[in-house]
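quick q for whoever's on today - can somebody do inverse folding on this one?? i tried earlier but teh output was garbage lol. tokens:
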């Protein structure tokens, strides 16, 4: 059994992918077909203030075109809506709809269920030790939910 740094990185990534893929499958079974992990990041970004394609692109570390495509998909599926900016009629702002909020709530509940499954599989203490070790290595606020990029730390912090 290898214990290289690359193997550790791949194991951590596999843990994330396993949880994300299972959550996506479960969301589809609960009526949210075609939802992808990036949609969750986009919805969290919009909730935290990314109310335009340009701002969403910046927060998600993607092009404006990619952000616009994501917005179009989310709008088509009624997870986000555009509304006129009351201060500037030329501008529209993004907002998360009730359906989008319900999706996020169901996603959080599913991740809690998946965590419980892992806890049953490896034991309460083992999972707590793993979480504590990871928190010690990466910190409590290492990843922002509104930023899927590899540099997913607070962009304003230096």
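ok took a stab at it. sequence:
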């Amino acid at each position: 059994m290898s214990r290289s740094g690359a193997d550790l990185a791949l194991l951590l990534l596999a843990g994330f992918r396993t949880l994300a893929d299972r959550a996506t499958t479960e969301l589809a079974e609960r009526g949210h077909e075609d939802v992808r992990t990036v949609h969750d990041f986009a919805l969290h970004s919009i909730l935290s203030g990314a109310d335009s394609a340009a701002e969403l692109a910046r927060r998600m570390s993607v092009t404006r075109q990619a952000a616009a495509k994501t917005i179009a998909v989310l709008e088509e599926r009624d997870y986000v809506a555009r509304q006129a900016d009351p201060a500037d009629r030329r501008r529209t702002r993004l907002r998360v709809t009730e359906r989008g909020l319900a999706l996020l709530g169901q996603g959080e509940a599913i991740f809690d269920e998946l965590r419980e499954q892992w806890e049953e599989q490896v034991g309460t203490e083992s999972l707590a030790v793993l979480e504590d070790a990871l928190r010690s290595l990466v910190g409590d606020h290492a990843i922002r939910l509104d930023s899927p990029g590899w540099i997913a730390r607070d962009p304003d912090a230096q």
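fwiw Confidence is low (pLDDT under 50) at residues 150-158. also DSSP finds six helices and two strands in the chain. so keep that in mind when u check it
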